[in-house]
Structure formats: structure tokens, C-alpha cells
Amino acid sequence: MYADVAEADRCGPLCVADALCNGRALATLLASFVAVALLGLLAFRFITPGSALVAVPPAVAVAALGLTAAGSQFAAQAAGRPIPGVLQSFLAAPPIVLRIVLLAGLLSLVLLAFVLVVALVLLVCRLPLVGALLYVVALPVLTIAGAALLLVLTAVALLSLPALWEGHSLRTVLSQALAIAEARKLQAFADLLLFLVIAGLLAAVAAAFVLAGFALATGLPLALDGGAPGLGDVSLPRLGEWLMDVDGFAVAGYVGAALVVAVMLALVSAVFLFGLAAAYRRSTRGIDIAAARAALGRTIVEMQVKRGQLAYETRRLASRAIEAIRERAGGGRRVLEVPPTGASATEFAVLDAPLEAAFEADSEATPWSTSEARCPACDSPAAPDDRFCGHCGRRLSKR
Q1: Claim to verify: residue 283 and residue 338 sit in the same structural domain
Q2: pTM of the full predicted structure?
Q3: Is residue 379 assigned to a domain?
């Protein structure tokens, strides 16, 4: 009970400001954004415009690794675990980034399926007479359905990121999303929205103070110069023009401005990342995802069975087509009997029955519990099928 109270105090909406107390995560974000800023400055200052895109892939990679590493540190802070160091978090980030990319691919496939449905409906609406009447109904229905789908996909993505930061597998992440949808429904989305709103307000205040300090630091020298503008007319181009008149200070001014932008981005990202981690902890508190994992596993097995049945039917139809062509080429005589290859649909289902039974036994014997699976290196909780520890990055499974 005391642990639940402590977690509730640590993961409340008003505790988003605690992100600014996580020095290790702030150092991770600052190092990442400084590297990105310097890469961008190097690209636009010393590289020709045609080859400036060379710096984009490494900048995106560094930003992705830095945000993921900091996300793992904020997830540890929200869970009350020891916060890993900067280097340790960076080393554990690559497999997490890969799983984030896979999750983004799955969500993109869902969105693509909806787009195909919309295209099919709009194609039907091109029919004469009936199409116009159908479009009157289809337009509002597709609009509302698209908005709802985007809302669900966004919520799933935002609540799945902290689970991936903790080192959970995609199967566990999707199971948690199903469990949250069944147990919390709109409450989880309301909590997420509340956290994001508070994080946005705090980020805006922090960014405003940083920009105010930047205006003081740049406006005073410009005001002291003879023809330079005052505090009300401060901009990076004017600052660059003023610095270009001073030997050796132009590059230093741009580097300093890039560092200011990196600091501001680090502060803004910190509150949003910790807000996501805290909202995730709040949404998953007291939820048992064993049933959701079992349902997801049964769905996967059924999809595999249906895929095998579809492959069998396709091969059977292809064999019949080849047989018909050969009969016609032979003057109506049966030249060759081509038996259908592969197992029948019934045989395929029988072959997959042990797989489904094994999964059911595994789900009943090993329900998801943080007390039954722990990292041997740092003793952090992990799901049974997690491959890496979300705290220290150590490999948990040899699969």
C-alpha cells in the first residue's frame, strides 16, 4: 500500500517538474542536442548547400539515440528505480530504437489499411446516381472514423514509448495497450492529455525564460554598439552581422547560439519525456495483462492458420489452372495430373493446434508479473519475453 502511495505521489500530473531534477537525463539530452546542433552548424557553415543533407542522417540517429536513452532514465525515475548513467543509457538505446521503429511500422500499416478502405469507398462513390447519395453519408463517417483512428494510434504510440524504454518486447507493449483500453478506456487518454498539457505549459515557461536570458545576453552588446539595434530588435541574423565585423567572433557567436538552442530543446524534451513516463505508470498501475497477452497470442496463431489456408487455396487454384491449360494444349486429353502441393486446410489447422495449446499452457503457467522476471545484473523488473533490460541494457534472453 505504501508503495502505491509513493508511486502516486511520484507520478502525479503536477510532478512533471521533477524532470528538471534528473541531472543524468538532462545531461543525456544536452549532449545529444549539442551534437545535433554542431552537426547542423557544420553542415550549413562549412558544407556546400548541395551536400548539406549529408549531416541529416547522423543528426537524426544521434537525436533518436539521445531521446531514447533519456526516456529510459526518466522511466527509471518514474518507477522509483536507480537512474542509469549517460553512457550506460546510450549503450542500451539501439535495440530500443529498433523496436520503436517496428512499432511505428505496425501503426503505419494500420493507417495504410484505413487509407485503402477510404480509397475503395471513394471509388464506389464514383458510380452514377447512387455514388452521390453514398458520398453524402460516407464523407462524415470517414471523417469521424479517421479522427478516431488517429486519436487511438497517437495514444497507443505515446503510451507504448515508456514501455519500450523499460525494455519490454513488442508483444508485451501491445498487450499492455489492449489491457489499458479494456480497463481504463478514456481515463488513460484523459490522464495522458493532462500530463501533456502540464508538460507543455512548463516547457513554454522554461523556453520563455531561456529566450529572455538570450535576449539580454545578445541585446546588451548590440545596444552598446553604434548602429546596432536595441533590445526590441534582436535576431540571429543581426547578431551574425554584428559579429562578422569583429575578427574571430563570428563562428563563436553561432556556436554559442547553437548551444542555447540545445539547452532549450533539452529542457522542453525533459518535461515531455518524464510526462509520458509518469502517464504510463499511472495508466498501468494495478493492471494485469496476462489475459490480454493470451488473447493477443491466440490472435497471432489464428492469423498464422488463416495465412496457411490462404497459401494452400492459392496453390490449389494455381495447380488447377495449370492442369486446365495443359488439357487444352493436349486437345482436350488429360496430359498430366497435378496434385495440390502442401498440406490441406484441415491438416494445417491440426498442425497448428499444438502451437496454440502450447501458447495457452505458457500463458497460464507464466502470467506476466514483474516479481517473476528480473534482470540478473541490476535486479530490475522485466517481462518473461523481454530480450533486453530496460534499466541497464543487458541481454535477458538468448533468442
Answers
A1: no
A2: 0.68
A3: no
